[in-house]
Specification:
By secondary structure, the chain is α+β, with helices and mostly antiparallel strands. It folds into 2 domains: 26-299, Beta-galactosidase, Chain A, domain 5; 302-515, no CATH class. It contains 12 helices and 21 strands. The strands form 3 sheets. Strands 1, 2, 3, 4, 5, 6, 11, 15 and 16 form a 9-stranded antiparallel sheet that branches. The protein has an 8-stranded antiparallel sheet with strand order 7-8-9-10-17-14-13-12. Helix 10 (364-378) packs parallel to helix 11. It starts with 13 loop residues before the first strand and ends in a 69-residue tail after the last strand.
Length: 515
């Protein structure tokens, strides 16, 4: 069933597209990340203010030099005709810029580690338009934690190259020792139905793309008449950027495809040429991605209402959402740092869902949360679950089999990320640990199952046993793009300092950086 458009869904909602190895997270504004086998493909930071990290398709009118994007970010512009739909296996962004209408679809192949962004443009005006399409993504190709801790050092080991024959960019991370996994990325842009033609332009040096003292919103490469430099090699700040020019006659349309493939060898990355030479490959990829996503939900027994709740929880796990966390007074009581969690064997390295249970609570909510954990893990999103339950032998006896079975499932799957389940008795833990859990948990739930939503409605945020909160501060519609390079907050375990309602305690307002 198709998802509602951005005119009715929460603008903070996210979707996760995955084949179990390659994952793409996207927000309603087009920001997000790509990851492969636990490695970051593109750079991303949790930033609830600017939220401008991601992979983008940028358009430029070659006649008047005006530039815009196929999604709200990175330019931050919002138009009345904007619409977003998150369906099973596919994200869709629809926009209109003057007389040019665009539809961007994103999917991950079910049978290969390929991400495809398909942009369909149509000209509803009365004059011919000469346009160019430019892709942009900051490359990591390495461990997420290493890039978070020292991005400047991480960037030094990525080397790029160009295969001019196929108009393809290649990138790999130079390994510092034999224990590091080899990773290769390939990207190519093509105009559907066009045979041969101009190979276009490319750029892999971020400094050259942005220019001095500029951000992505006013990048030098997107200025009127500016060309990409075709720079490849050992650049200090790697990006993938490709550009193709084309004309769009009145009442005509064109489709452009941006392919990205990840592999553990150069030959594996170069296998992308198979898709480039197949005219039907894009349509098969989107069909297969939808079927694979539906099949995975059926395998885990996830219905439409559950999928909507899981999406709401996942959004809060990735971006701080005060509506789903503990009350501010509870957050303020957390102290002691990560060692408080270590006493219960909880690392705090992954986002946490805390489910508080009473003796009379139904086990249905426990099963649902464990089902969500298993589903996210199959999508390459690692989440820890903590069950905090009351005393009682009968309750313990009913809970133990569920916990044991889930812990056994979490130990399977060599290619799946590590995730853990903890079951704690409320009367057996100290006040410091209880307060610490409430502070770091991104989602705090109670055992009572939610009331079923009306057909076609958007599920409301879950209700918790918590004190009332002041109204949430709404941000301006077009916040400045983030440009700093500080590390994100996967969880609040490192500090356990309370975050004010509507903000993230570890994220200050972004400041411009030097390109």
């Amino acid at each position: 069933m198709p998802s509602p458009s951005s005119r009715s869904i929460d603008a903070e909602q996210r979707c996760l597209l995955s084949n179990g190895r390659y994952s793409v997270m996207l927000g309603a504004n087009g920001a997000g990340f790509s990851r492969w086998r636990g490695l970051a493909v593109t750079r991303w930071r949790e930033d609830p203010v600017g939220d401008g990290w991601g992979s983008y398709l940028l358009l430029r009118d070659e006649d008047d030099g005006e530039a815009w994007s196929a999604s709200r970010q990175p330019y931050g512009t919002h138009r009345p005709d904007d619409a977003v739909a998150f369906d099973a296996g596919c994200a869709r962004f629809s926009r209109r810029h003057h007389s040019v209408h665009s539809v961007l679809e994103v999917a991950v192949a079910a049978d290969a580690d390929i991400e495809l962004r398909r942009l369909s443009l149509s000209n509803h005006g009365d004059r011919k338009r000469t346009l160019s399409l430019t892709s942009y993504a900051e490359l990591v190709l390495g461990q997420i934690s290493a890039d978070d801790a020292h991005p400047a050092f991480s960037k030094m080991f990525v080397q790029t190259a160009r295969d001019a024959t196929h108009g393809m960019l290649l990138a790999t991370r130079r390994r510092r020792d034999a224990s590091e996994a080899e990773v290769w990325a390939a990207q190519a842009m093509q105009i559907a139905g066009a045979e041969g033609g101009d190979a276009g332009e490319c750029e892999t040096d971020r400094a050259r793309f942005l220019g001095r003292l500029r951000t992505l919103r006013d990048a030098q490469a997107m200025q009127p008449g500016a060309a990409l430099s075709n720079t490849v090699g050992c650049v200090l700040d790697p990006v993938f950027s490709l550009r193709r020019r084309f004309t769009l006659a009145p009442d005509s349309s064109v489709t452009l495809l941006l392919w990205t493939r990840l592999a553990d060898s150069r030959d594996g990355a170069m296998a992308l040429t198979t898709q480039l030479g197949d005219a039907d490959a894009a349509e098969r990829l989107f069909d297969g991605a939808g079927q694979q996503a539906e099949a995975e939900r059926r395998r885990l027994g996830i219905g439409a209402a559950q999928a909507a709740r899981f999406t709401g929880w996942m959004s809060a796990l990735l971006y701080n959402d005060p509506r789903q966390r503990a009350a501010p007074d509870a957050l303020a009581r957390g102290r002691g740092g990560a060692p408080v969690l270590w006493s219960a064997g909880i690392s705090g390295d992954r986002p946490i869902i805390l489910l508080r249970l009473g003796e009379a609570d139904d086990l249905a909510r426990v099963n649902e949360v464990l089902q969500a954990q298993q589903y996210w893990r199959s999508q390459q999103l690692a989440v820890d679950v903590v069950l905090l339950h009351g005393a009682g032998d009968a309750w313990q006896a009913a809970l133990d089999p569920l916990v044991s079975a889930q812990q056994a499932r979490l130990k399977t799957g060599d290619r799946l990320p590590k995730a853990e389940l903890f079951a704690l008795r409320d009367d057996a833990i100290g006040e410091d640990l209880r307060n610490g859990l409430l502070t770091v948990a991104r989602v705090v739930l109670d055992g009572a199952p939610p009331a079923p939503a009306a057909p076609g409605s958007t599920p409301a945020p879950p209700r918790h046993r918590r004190s009332a909160q002041p109204p949430r501060l709404r941000l301006p519609p077009s916040p400045p793009a983030p440009t700093r390079r500080n590390s994100p907050t996967a969880t609040a375990a490192s500090s356990m300092v309370a975050a004010p309602t509507g903000s993230n305690s570890t994220n200050s307002a972004p400041r411009p950086h030097r390109g």
